[in-house]
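Write out this protein's structure.
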Amino acid sequence: MTQMNSSMNDQPAPDAPGKDNEKSIMDKIQQLGQTNVPQMNNESNIHCLTIVGQIEGHMQLPPQNKTTKYEHLIPQIVAIEQNPKIEGLLVILNTVGGDVEAGLAISEMLGSLSKPVVSIVLGGGHSIGVPIAVACDYAFITETATMTIHPVRLTGLVIGVPQTFEYLDKMQERVVNFVIKHSNISEEKFKELMFSKGNLTRDIGTNVVGSDAVEYGLMDEVGGVGQAIRKLNSMISERKDTQKDEMLQ
């Protein structure tokens, strides 16, 4: 009897129920940069997508850089579109910018979602973060947040051939056209801010603060998270009413 008790005591204790959940959360943080993915979000009809640090594109950035990887965002956006439980998307930005093509890809996906999408710029929505912010159906910016508008640039290397300059010029036009299409700013004003001299140290461009971004027509409203969620809920209700009317017709 003593031997039986001894052998039973030697067996490893079963893992606590919380350990599997903690491991799952840690895996999601490492893989996707957040604690929940759209398929697992059963608590709210609104999903929150965060874009922080530098937007990483085709080239992997050094490990000390805070990055948002576009290959993580793209499947999440697709899942949001497909998941019927998610009725709206809140995009929170605090980014210094990053890869132009990756940023435009994210912008195009957000702009093509069939569900209401609201963005809010906290801290900064600089460089390629500008088209991401305006791609959403309604764009908020906090009073202290800023957006840096500047031309597309390389890492300081000399442009050696005309083809390189032409490529950069066409890429820049893609950014300009996207922003003016998805916001109320005019092309003339946006290019004026982009090529302004003296506003940025050792560079050309403009640093636009909260209320100025609204005044220029770049963003829709100055506000925080509370206002953004209220607006998103209102848009979700309007979409439901529209769908009901279409079904009755």
